[in-house]
Amino acid sequence: MSKIDEHELIAKVTERVIAALKQRQPFDGLIPVGISVRHVHITPADLEQLYGPGAQLTKLRDLRQPGEFAANQTVTLIGPRMRPIENVRILGPARSHTQVEISRTDAIVLGLNPPVRPSGKIAGTPGITLVGPAGVVTLKEGVICANRHIHLNEADAARFGVKPDQEVEVEVEGDKALIFEHVQIRVGPKFVLEMHLDTDDANAAGINCGAKAWLRKR
Amino acid sequence: MSKIDEHELIAKVTERVIAALKQRQPFDGLIPVGISVRHVHITPADLEQLYGPGAQLTKLRDLRQPGEFAANQTVTLIGPRMRPIENVRILGPARSHTQVEISRTDAIVLGLNPPVRPSGKIAGTPGITLVGPAGVVTLKEGVICANRHIHLNEADAARFGVKPDQEVEVEVEGDKALIFEHVQIRVGPKFVLEMHLDTDDANAAGINCGAKAWLRKR
Question: What biological process terms from GO does the record include (chains A, B) (predicted)?
Answer without folding.
Answer: 1,2-propanediol catabolic process
